[in-house]
Amino acid sequence: MKQSITLGKVTKFMGLGFLTTLKDLFTGKLDKEDFKSFLRKVVVPIVSILLFVGLWHMGAKTLYNIEADFKINKALEERGQAAADAEAACIASGNVTCQPNSLPSPAQVWDSYKSLLRDHSTISADKAAFKEKTAALNEKRIAEGKNPIVYTGRPSFVDQIFRSLKTVFAGFLLALVIAVPLGIFIGLSPTLKSAFNWFIQIFKPVSPVVWYLLVFMIVKTLLIDSSEDSSFTISFISVGLCSMWATLVNTAMGVSSVDKDYINVAKVLKLGTFQKIFKVILPSSLPLIFTGLKITISVGWMVLIAIELLAQSPGLGTFVWEEFQNGANDSNAKIIVAMFVIGIIGFLLDRLMLTIQNSVSFVKTDAI
Amino acid sequence: MSTITTNTTTKGYVENGIFPSNDVMLDLKNLKKVYPTPKGDYVVLENLNLQIRKEEFVTIIGHSGCGKTTMLSMIAGLNNISGGNISVLGKHIKGPGPDRGVIFQAPSLMPWMTSLQNVLLGVNQVFPHATKAQRNDIAKYYLQKVGLEDAFHKKAADLSQGMQQRVGIARAFAIKPKVLLLDEPFGMLDSLTRGELQDILIEIWNKEKITAVMITHDVDEAIFLADRVVMMTSGPRAKIGDVLSIDFERPRTRKAVLEHNDYYKYRKHLIDFLEH
């Protein structure tokens, strides 16, 4: 009993309340009163997911058939009946060389997902073997003051995910470090607000691509002497600059709209400026600051893909772009896998922020 | 009505008159408040004169919107003075300060702090040279006084309205102000809780005897708590309409007050004023 209360609290805290309902189902604690909410919270989502997969399957099949018919007809027109029959037979046999290139079906995507995981374990094994092999040599090289030999093989899909996460967190930290203090100053001072307002209004809607180009222009010059790859630096700065606006605006709004009662209390008690900011204004604007930070991390994750793609910085964006250029028969399926991974990670990042928000702020926010 | 006024006059002072200056804690002279509007100035208060003596508890009643709260927030220093002046112990006030503690209508606690932290916020400010333990003791003493000894470490957001207002009372007394300003502090509470809080307030006040000015809409509350009830005329250009001395002995109990012969006379006086 006690444990279930804790679990319930934790999952609700993290915006994952449906997990409790699911647990109650398996432990048989669900009574009739709860059954309706069980239907709504667990059954309805599962049914909608199944419906979605079914529609996707049928849609993919239709698109596949259109492509296949087109191929056969083309063969018929250009090379006659025999070629068309051969084409049809080839497609039916499942031979990879003549498969129509259309929207992959759920089953194909699942297969690609498994193959990406297999690929990851192969590469990890390879890496481990490489490390073992070069361990002794590297020790010697370090002792001699030389750079150790590093693994330069192709990154696996999982490696790309972690690269992307690293980029988005670096970008998020940059946004946090710039936007929160700036937002506080803007919120506190009407003068600063009018100084910065035009700036915010103009730069907020600028597209990630343009931010990338701007950052590229600047960083390229700044790192002109460096032989290191600047793509990571450029992409995380671009992500930070694209995504910081929500935090900036929300922080400024939160700080400038602190409840008048709190300000009056601070005035009556004659709190000093620092105390007023840290004991009254900041805590009371935390909910809005966190709303901004939540938007920032979502926007950052969303623009990251486009920016990585442009910057050729390793990560999911590059992965998607390479698969698109690659054009292998399972490339499309891998792109869809990446799409789901991006979506799920975005969701988890949002929940992570919600959890942090609920642990530091006095207003408990429910998940939407 | 006239009989009561005569009564008080014979006791040696005049309603709304001039007291010996070393006896006066709070002095409002020709106070004026004007809000500029597009259609010209709107005069809320004009020619408002009021003297409140040391260790006196004054309640202020008047119709909604007559400017009671404006007057109180001017005394608190949260609202600018358009004309005349306000002085505490003979010194004109400039802006807000902890010598005038305020209990707001909404409890106005920082919801992210515990009740102890809320009280300490003021205590730390007023007693910067006391040790941490001493300041803690002061805060805890007043929280005990308002009956919150079990809720030191509860977040203000988790307390009921009544409990929050208790913290508000503790916070105001803990900074040991010269004047305590109460802006309808129990207006948002149910009548049972209101009664409890009135008892708590008057119990602490009996001990501390801090000069208090309290706005209320409740005639019974006004009589039960006050040494004098100040009636304000309806705005615009509101001023002091009448002052009624309540000559019950202190410490008072609710029962004794209700059973006192003068109680209904006072009550009738106030209601007559409000209805005209």
Unreliable stretches of chain B (pLDDT < 50, length at least 5) are: 1-16
The quaternary structure here is heterodimer
CATH superfamily of the largest domain in chain A, please? MetI-like
Name the poorly predicted regions of chain A.
Answer: none
Per CATH, the class of chain B reads Alpha Beta
The pLDDT mean of chain B sits at 87
How much is the radius of gyration of chain B in Å? 19 Å
Q: CATH H level of chain B: which superfamily? A: P-loop containing nucleotide triphosphate hydrolases
Please write the string of helix (H) and strand (E) elements of chain B: HEEEHEEEHHHEHEHEEHH
Residue share in helices of chain A? over 70%
Task: Specify the number of helices of chain B.
Answer: 9
Head-to-tail CA distance between termini of chain B = 14 Å
Q: What does the overall shape of chain A look like?
A: globular
Overall structural domain count of chain B: 1
Secondary-structure element series of chain A: HHHHHHHHHHHHH
Shape of chain B: globular
CATH architecture of chain B: 3-Layer(aba) Sandwich
Write the layout of secondary structure elements.
The complex is a heterodimer of chains A (368) and B (276).
Chain A: H1 2-13, H2 18-26, H3 32-79, H4 81-93, H5 106-143, H6 157-188, H7 190-203, H8 208-222, H9 231-256, H10 260-268, H11 273-311, H12 316-326, H13 331-360
Helix pairs in contact in A: 1-2, 2-3, 3-4, 5-13, 6-7, 6-9, 6-11, 6-12, 8-9, 9-11, 11-12, 11-13, 12-13
Chain B: H1 2-10, E1 24-37, E2 40-53, E3 57-61, H2 68-76, E4 83-88, E5 91-92, E6 100-103, H3 115-126, H4 132-145, H5 161-174, E7 179-183, H6 191-208, E8 211-215, H7 219-225, E9 228-232, E10 240-245, H8 254-259, H9 263-275
Helix pairs in contact in B: 3-4, 3-5, 4-5, 5-6
